Amino acid sequence: MSMITHSSRRDWLRNTACGFGALAFHDLVRAAQSPLAVQTPRFPAKAKRVIFLFMAGGPSQPDLFDPKDYIKRMHGQKVSAPINTNELRVGTDKFLALATHGEVRPRGQSGTMISDLMPHTASIADEICLLRAMHADNNQHAPAALQFHTGSTTDVRPSMGSWISYGLGTENQNLPSFISIHPDSDVRLYGSGFLPAAHQGTRVIVPQDDKQSPIDYLKDTSANPAAQRQRIDFVQRMNRRLLQQAEVDGRMEGMIESMEIAFRMQTATPELVDISNESEATKELYGVGNKDCDKNARACLLARRLSEAGVRFVQVTMGGWDHHGDIRTALPKSCAGTDQPCAGLIKDLKSRGLLDDTLVVWSGEFGRTPWSQDLSGTSPIEKHGREHQPESFCSWMAGGGIKPGISFGETDEFGFRPVSGKVHLHDLHATILHQLGLDHEKLTWRHLGRDFRLTDVYGNVVKEILA
């Protein structure tokens, strides 16, 4: 980490921090130094990086991982749903049990339950840790997704990737520490909130042709590299002169850092996102060229390349899981679009010796109900879908010091409420940080007069799933 060069600035920081304690002074000092410099974990880490595979819309855990015999026996019949009768459940007022679509069978030596709709995921059953009693706090997409990414359902907070970038920096100074591939339109899901702007996620799309840029405005065709470097140096001198007068300005510091890394990225990024030099066997492993999953296959392959190059947190968003109607037709398509790319990523990481210190997390923002949803009120049950269910859903993790080949947590006979092994989103966040060598209670930033953290005032590390 670079040293603070101006004694007056250092004195200002120390005086400002007076009364806030050493932790606040530490935060302010870090803001004044290079925000992406490599940081030392607080304790030995099992993982160096994270790949977050976000299944936007809410995958149906009854159909994929957690079937229930009671629901299967009661298919098409009304069940006494264990919910608060004051809750509004649009389209589920009949509470007709909806049996699993297809078979969910024990896989591998571990016996992990995985659907026939996900044969590639079934092939990595002994590599994953299946969490079957995940729990979130909101049953609407936007706030639930916001909580999964930031820990809050309403406020503008730093995203998980931004907290990790702040805690660890980047291993490659030519690349951002946090990249979001095909992100949601809600920029809060990869924003840095009140953390320095350098920690926000960089939006990346996988180019489909030579004319498409992976990052907006990355190319500068107005000047040659030498002239562009001179121009940036001139602007940066003015920025630093102004910063000396202001002494501390987090936004300006973030802009200075962003301009520098943007210039370096113009050289590093084009080669990195070009997957043409990957072997045909590797492309086939992910499903590149398969019309059902080509986009996600390229995204997962790029995630591996970025992680291998030193990016701390890579987030890949794969939508299409919001199955309110005709789930028996829609779910197989969603599985076909994501199954091979996600499983291929795990296999590729393992073959390269990267899985041990790369933590992969697969999840949606919530799950789906075990009873059917009929939006029209007149459709036959074969055309029904499922409503949102934050009370319990399934996620899986692999690598990064997580026990492979286990299932953790159980739900009731309906598949609705956790009865053991309940894992809240705050617990998941705490566990992810722990595997990176970060204490979720001490990774803080002072804002509006108090210390904020990803897990707010909650969260416990799920020690039962740690290898």
Automatic annotation (TrEMBL):
Residue intervals passing through the bilayer: none
Pfam families, alphabetized: DUF1501
PANTHER family: BLL7424 PROTEIN, DUF1501 DOMAIN-CONTAINING PROTEIN
Protein name from the UniProt record: Sulfatase
Organism (species): Brevifollis gellanilyticus
